[in-house]
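can u do me a favor
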């Protein structure tokens, strides 16, 4: 009995049409990363669990896919291990896990290769990551990230260039209505201090849920973590702050400037905006949002999140500065900052907005059809000339009726079909059929190459 094929939940196949659209996104992101001086890097799909755990917070650690040890993975276990639960059992049966993100493996790479790297080190990385999350629209268990990070400098030029890169990528993709939300972990720390709580991590985790559960539920969670309701009233104005970015920073200085963390955070943001102006970018699409927390625990400075407006998908990009991520691997004092595009979410956004241009999605631009076997050699000559000029082309490989070949071209969305027979060979011409208009005309090969250039 044959088995019905299926896919694990949260994973997908990508057919040729989907892949051409995804490659359109990848190529444009890669083009911008390279333009800004970032070099390519790849790391293994698997990392030792000792590398991954403890970097993403308790919730993140629960979402790491574990990989069972090779061979008899139960041989080192005992009945007592099973009785004591998964925390004691897991280290004995799984020493590796699938990548949760690209940043932690990058930090591991930097430490292992510190003597061969020229700092500041700028790298981009485009690879899949895996998270044992509950699958839903816009959230998958296997998905690609496109990261760009620079380590070995604390210059805020890097933060400003992140904004510039996001703007440039979105311009290439045709996305116009979006917000680059920026906050600073030091400002969040100052808000936590103003609220009078001692558990800053609890403050970040609760605030990160603001959009989903609302301010009242956030405050209830914080009260349960030891924050006093009277103190939480002090930060309420910061949760619904409106106005220009300059007005927001001024409010922060007046509200949190007496705290060292608040002063540090506002100084960094002011300097970043000043740099953007010097780059001739007038804070385009940038929106200061002091409720932005981002869940990952390793951020220490500016944090970013990008949302496309008026679509059903959430954030499509995010990142921030991490001053000592490499410290957990024994290399202290190496500051870094980076961000990541979520390609799967970008794809969904572009589909929803109808931004994929059909021309850019063609896998084949020209199909050659020979009326008879004797016309094939002439077809090969034309095919070589087309490919030599960078035109994506193919020849229908067998003798079939013209209707079948045209149907093939129509299904593959091939815009031109060249019909080749005895007359074309005799006159050294091509019969060109435009699949969009249905028009046919005779041209020389040189004229057709000029048309396609």
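np, heres the sequence
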């Amino acid at each position: 009995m044959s088995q019905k094929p299926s896919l694990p939940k949260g994973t997908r196949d990508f057919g040729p049409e989907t892949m051409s659209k995804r490659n359109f996104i990848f190529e444009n992101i890669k083009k911008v990363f390279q333009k800004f001086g970032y070099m390519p890097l790849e790391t293994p799909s698997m990392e030792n669990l000792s590398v991954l755990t403890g970097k993403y917070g308790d919730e993140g650690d629960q979402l790491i896919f574990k990989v069972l040890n090779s061979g008899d993975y139960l041989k080192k276990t005992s009945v007592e291990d099973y009785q004591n639960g998964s925390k004691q059992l897991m280290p004995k049966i799984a020493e590796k896990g699938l990548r949760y993100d690209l940043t932690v493996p990058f930090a591991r790479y930097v430490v292992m290769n510190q003597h061969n790297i020229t700092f500041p080190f700028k790298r981009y990385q485009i690879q899949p990551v895996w998270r044992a999350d509950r699958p839903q629209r816009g959230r998958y268990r296997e998905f690609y990230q496109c990261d760009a990070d620079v380590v070995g400098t604390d210059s805020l030029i890097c933060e400003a260039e992140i904004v510039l890169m996001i703007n440039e990528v979105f311009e290439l993709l045709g996305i116009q209505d979006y917000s680059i939300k920026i906050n600073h972990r030091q400002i969040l720390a100052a808000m936590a201090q103003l609220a009078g709580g001692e558990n800053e991590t609890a403050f970040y985790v609760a605030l990160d849920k603001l959009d989903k559960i609302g301010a009242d539920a956030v405050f209830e969670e914080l009260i349960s973590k030891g924050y006093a309701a009277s103190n939480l009233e002090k930060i309420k104005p910061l949760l619904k702050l409106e106005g220009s970015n300059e007005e927001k920073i001024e409010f922060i200085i007046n509200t949190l400037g007496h705290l060292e963390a608040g002063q540090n955070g506002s100084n960094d943001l002011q300097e970043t905006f000043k740099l953007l102006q010097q780059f001739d970018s007038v804070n385009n699409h940038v929106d200061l949002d002091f409720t932005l927390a981002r869940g990952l625990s390793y951020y220490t400075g500016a944090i970013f999140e990008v949302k496309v407006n008026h679509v059903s998908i959430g954030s499509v990009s995010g990142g921030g500065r991490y001053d000592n991520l490499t410290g957990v691997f024994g290399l202290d004092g190496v500051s870094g900052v980076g961000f990541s595009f979520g390609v799967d979410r970008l794809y969904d956004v572009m589909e929803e907005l109808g931004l994929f241009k059909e021309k850019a999605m063609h896998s084949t631009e020209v199909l050659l059809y020979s009326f008879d076997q004797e016309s094939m050699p002439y077809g090969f000559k034309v095919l070589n000339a087309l490919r030599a000029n960078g035109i994506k082309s193919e020849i229908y490989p067998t003798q079939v009726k013209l209707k079948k070949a045209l149907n093939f071209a129509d299904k593959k969305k091939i815009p031109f079909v060249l019909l080749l027979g005895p007359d074309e060979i005799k006159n050294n011409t091509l019969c060109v059929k435009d699949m969009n208009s249905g028009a046919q005309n005779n041209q020389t090969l040189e004229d057709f190459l000029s048309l396609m250039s």
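The chain has two domains: 18-353, 364-452. hope that helps!!
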